[in-house]
Amino acid sequence: MDEKDGDAKWSTALSSQRTEVRSSPAVVGDLVCAGSQDGGVRAYSTQGGEHKWTAVPSQRFVGGITATENRLYAGSIGEDAALYAIDSDDGSVQWQESLEDGTMAAPAVTEETVFVGGVGSPLRALNTNTGKQRWQFTSVERASFDAAPAVDEASVYVASTDGKLHAISRDTGDRSWMVDVPQQTRSSVAVADGSAFVLDYEGTVRAFATEDGSQQWSVETERPLARADPAVVRDTVYVGAFDGVVYALNVEDGSIRWQYDTGSPAIWGSPVPVNGTVYVGDAEGTVYALAEA
């Protein structure tokens, strides 16, 4: 889509059966890549939409893709599920590592390590170049880590299916702290400026101090939040809710900078701030471009 006027430049079907697309695309160089429930990670030209390659066509991909300079990391779901490291130039698989039942979330990637959870699985840290496991973290509560993790210089932050938020050492896999999220969440975590932001099923946005997990603030919306992720740019947190409203919150205290009612029954996708504009899609298939705070 044209970022100035929203006109469609090109479109392509990721599924021959017209099933919903749950995988967020990733852009690397002049390619846009997305997973398909029909099978495979598919790459298209950003300019004209021409299909360039398909990787791992035998596997289903419903989670997001994480892109680095010349590599994509994507996890599949179902039988023989795995995390794949894919060369963005030609779609060749550089390595793969089994993920038990698979994952529906994008991994977090640093220069040396890929952090990934999964359906009914522990959080694992893998070498970016080889896929060899560095460590894995299994909570005492035996909960799984379905949501995408976030990282800063010291820790990995991830929500578990039993309503906990964990801070885990990037180097050792030891847990630094754990706090309750009163209502369960499968929200991915956003981290910025010493705070970790997470959403819950009851419509509350919470900020926790990354140092010790103390809660800094919480803000309730009118209705439960979408199964989406918060996005942070500079001093603002952007979230979308099931009431069809996009919220821009102050990272310091959670106060509402602005809110925009789309009139839709729900916001399903995560807001994407780019170059002063916040892009968000609603449950009826409309994309909105809103000015940042």
What do you see in this structure?
- By secondary structure, the chain is mainly beta.
- The protein has three domains: 103 residues, Lipocalin (Beta Barrel), CATH 2.40.128.630; 114 residues, Lipocalin, CATH 2.40.128.630; 66 residues, Beta Barrel (Thrombin, subunit H).
- The chain has no helices and 27 strands.
- The chain is globular, with a radius of gyration of 18 Å.
- It starts with 25 loop residues before the first strand and ends with a strand.
- 41% of the residues are buried.
SSE topology sketch:
Layout: E1 26-28, E2 31-35, E3 41-45, E4 51-55, E5 65-67, E6 71-75, E7 82-87, E8 93-98, E9 108-109, E10 113-118, E11 121-127, E12 133-137, E13 150-151, E14 155-160, E15 164-169, E16 175-180, E17 190-192, E18 195-199, E19 204-209, E20 215-220, E21 231-233, E22 236-240, E23 245-250, E24 256-261, E25 272-274, E26 277-281, E27 287-291
Antiparallel strand pairs: 1-2, 2-3, 3-4, 5-6, 6-7, 7-8, 9-10, 10-11, 11-12, 13-14, 14-15, 15-16, 17-18, 18-19, 19-20, 21-22, 22-23, 23-24, 25-26, 26-27
Protein name: Cell surface protein or serine/threonine protein kinase-related protein
Region (Disordered): 1-21
Domain Pyrrolo-quinoline quinone repeat: 1-55, 123-290
Number of domains: 3
CATH topology of the largest domain: Lipocalin
Distance between the termini: 22 Å
Strand content: 35-45%
CATH top-level class of the largest domain: Mainly Beta
> What is Rg?
18 Å
What are the secondary-structure elements, in order, as H or E?
EEEEEEEEEEEEEEEEEEEEEEEEEEE
- Helix fraction by DSSP (H/I, runs of at least 4): under 10%
Main β sheet profile: 4 strands, antiparallel
Number of helices: 0
Number of DSSP strands?
27
Q: What's the pLDDT, averaged over the residues?
A: 84
Instruction: Tell me, briefly, the overall form.
Output: globular
Low-confidence region ranges:
none
Q: Strand order across the biggest sheet?
A: 1-2-3-4
What oligomerization state is this entry in? single chain
Q: Provide the structure class.
A: mainly beta
In CATH terms, what is the architecture of the largest domain? Beta Barrel
InterPro entries: PQQ_b-propeller_rpt, PQQ_rpt_dom, Quinoprotein_ADH-like_sf, WD40/YVTN_repeat-like_dom_sf
Keywords: Kinase, Serine/threonine-protein kinase, Transferase
Pfam families: PQQ_2 (PF13360)
Protein name: Cell surface protein or serine/threonine protein kinase-related protein
